[in-house]
Amino acid sequence: MQAARQRLRNQGRVFIALKPKTQRAPITQVMARLTQAARGVVGVRLFLQPVQDVVIGGMLTATQSVHANRHNLNELNKWAPIIQSTLSKIPEITDLASDQQSTGPQLTLQINRDAAVRLGITTNQIDGVLYDAFGQRPIAQLFTSLNQYFIIMEVPPQMQRGPDALQRIYVRSQTAGMVPLSEVVTRQPTVATLAVNHLGQFPSVTLSFNLKNNAPLGPAVTAINKAVANLHVPQTVQAHFQGTAAQAFQASLSSMPILILAALIAVYIILGMLYENTIHPLTIRPHCPRRVWTRC
After folding, report:
1. What is the Cβ-side half-sphere exposure of residue 207, based on CA atoms within 13 angstroms?
2. Are residues 85 and 227 in the same domain?
3. What is the pTM of this model?
4. Is residue 265 part of a domain?
5. Does residue 290 sit within a domain?
6. H helices of 110-243, where?
């Protein structure tokens, strides 16, 4: 059994080996018990899925069936949360999860050029101090008999913590001595994308889900398609199914008319051989007695 823990910015994957079937409850009961126990952990969502012997699609997701959106990245970041919120209201599915990671905290620094000019500080000085403090500037190199090591400059770790670290780092001014960076730099908290997933050559967001109470996949697929169609998603965002269950189900539906037609042709050929005529299979009367090898 496979368990995936997902937070807002971090996720982990744990593989669990169960005891033999004779020594434990059915796997559905084990998954329900583990899910109930994990609900008491604040800030963590637990998704469970049994490991399949045969996997179609090869996508690694928190749950089984997959509904993927792709193409325009900006439109994906806008519409993926809307689609996820809409699909969470569908009663046939549960454990809805997304691999979108577009809410990572980011701190943008803007140089106050008026204050910097007044204090006699250049932008190159500010860039250099920030790189010395938080970058990886090599200042020396040590050689041993088997290897070589670089000495990297940085401020002590306790001075790097928190957004107020700029108040503890100083830059040399031509008129006022040492000046905190917070006097010439403005902080602006924003969010940024931690990772951009791709499906083929296009950026994508994958929404995975499980079926609730062993519900059939057909009504769930129909409900998802209807919900997405009602949102009037722009043409730059295309939604389709991937994964083990959904992809195989969609493939079977696409070939169903051909299979039905082939079955009808096979029945017609067999009846024509039994009646030794190509017209009788199409003109069988309802009152004709059902016999295997005798014609009416």
Report:
1. 24
2. yes
3. 0.55
4. no
5. no
6. 113-119, 123-134, 157-160, 217-231
